[in-house]
User: Fold these one by one.
Assistant:
Number 1:
Amino acid sequence: NAGVTQTPKFQVLKTGQSMTLQCAQDMNHNSMYWYRQDPGMGLRLIYYSASEGTTDKGEVPNGYNVSRLNKREFSLRLESAAPSQTSVYFCASNLLTVYGYTFGSGTRLTVV
Amino acid sequence: TQLLEQSPQFLSIQEGENLTVYCNSSSVFSSLQWYRQEPGEGPVLLVTVVTGGEVKKLKRLTFQFGDARKDSSLHITAAQTGDTGLYLCAGDSGGGADGLTFGKGTHLIIQP
């Protein structure tokens, strides 16, 4: 099915461990995004990529890095996980903002 | 930083009742979107409103964009249990591919 695919679905990390969240879309969208969703805080933008080869910081980029590997794939890396990064992470893509975003089903990350 | 305030945060009503959810800001948006999110899934786009004063209908859901393009409302007529979910509004500042600004959401529960 066409859409945004995120892996893994669930992950538990120990403080200080690293991991990469994977995201791929098959809709030929130019723009891709990483958001985190926390209770009472809503969705907050971590990083975005307007096109292949470009990335920019969003509202809460500290502690994260991203790679736009090609037009399809946009990964999010936590180099040294902290408990404050416990959250649900969503990847999204769009062709034009006015057409709306397509979201993946999310990665629930717990850092202990 | 542009903010979107949604109200109410939580709403529990009986099936068959009507309800309205509000999304307000002091900022002007070029467009505003409404999403619905179910547990364990990513948000799914319901509608985009672009023109001040615009009204869009999606079956029993009516969306309105304020004349000044700073606020929006979602009205549900004769709510059904299937309407249960988290409703999010999101504003596009028109600055390019730098991400939508999301409200914190309204948790809606429709009791049978």
Number 2:
Amino acid sequence: DSGVTQTPKHLITATGQRVTLRCSPRSGDLSVYWYQQSLDQGLQFLIQYYNGEERAKGNILERFSAQQFPDLHSELNLSSLELGDSALYFCASSDRGGGEQFFGPGTRLTVL
Amino acid sequence: AQSVTQLGSHVSVSEGALVLLRCNYSSSVPPYLFWYVQYPNQGLQLLLKYTSAATLVKGINGFEAEFKKSETSFHLTKPSAHMSDAAEYFCAVSGYYGKLTFGQGTILTVHP
């Protein structure tokens, strides 16, 4: 158990819908990262937050957004969903930007 | 820009044989390098990391990796494979603020 929790574990929805994925980092970790894992693209970095502020952006679509709240949990919002958004979404946390990252169990999103 | 190339998407070994998973990286700054393991339907677990200290890095479960700057390589080895080592392995390089760039992964199969 990494100490990083993600909910829900599975999510099945339809095209055009909007979903929210939630991540709680390890106690004391200030940095949260979001990654997408798909068969086509492999593991890709989406976005990073550090202590509530966006720190780095990767290949994140404009339909996707994220935020980190004062209690340090983070949410990834995916809207206007397409079939190609079906993937595993991982959250990771570290005590600081650049430290070792601990991964959550992931949320498996299926878009039908 | 940073990138990682894992040579061989599938590696098959016999139980007790040497495991060698290859990783080459490209980085414009001194890299931090990582190997992660992913078991089916689980998140990523850190095996080991290189952060510019000793070039031979020992990790969990008997794995080790050697950083070779001249070859831009960070290959993962284990002297004797065990059935429980069957999983997918990812090499990653850390960039600014710690975001990870992953290789495409290598699926390790261990035969009895």
Number 3:
Amino acid sequence: SQQGEEDPQALSIQEGENATMNCSYKTSINNLQWYRQNSGRGLVHLILIRSNEREKHSGRLRVTLDTSKKSSSLLITASRAADTASYFCATVVLNAGNMLTFGGGTRLMVKP
Amino acid sequence: NAGVTQTPKFQVLKTGQSMTLQCAQDMNHNSMYWYRQDPGMGLRLIYYSASEGTTDKGEVPNGYNVSRLNKREFSLRLESAAPSQTSVYFCASSSRQGGTGELFFGEGSRLTVL
């Protein structure tokens, strides 16, 4: 079963627009991570936010975490065609071993 | 710095055949993982090794075996392949246990079982 679920499943925007992807999870977590996957490639780590953090930035990426709502969002500002990829959230469930569990992903297409 | 290297990149098997997917990392990481990725399912953990000499089952271990050969290498074996094992397999490593740090992924091994 998937701990994290991304929303929307697919998103299409124009270059320069902002892209927002959401992740909801079911149980208490230690941290939440976001990964990017280009077509046919492996996943690349983007950002990790700990359960005691509410917001984190990295370049054009902004991640928020609301543990009361069990949700996180990833915002990509001023998107570029090169941002076209699938984006996954991943969580570690507290007291459930060493399992980093991934959601089904959001497929982002940025049109030039 | 190669990171995580997986071989082979592509493989076609017939039902019942066996094969081993190889994974090696050169980052001196303690923890290594095998995931499978199927359309619409995200990644599911098959097995992991928190440190050299230890292995543990993940979410979908049935039909697979693993070997942590040394600190660098973690192999995944399919003893009798089934069509349901058609998937893309990813190996990953991390310097920290328990998912508390980022994972570094290989480029994937695409397996088709006929």
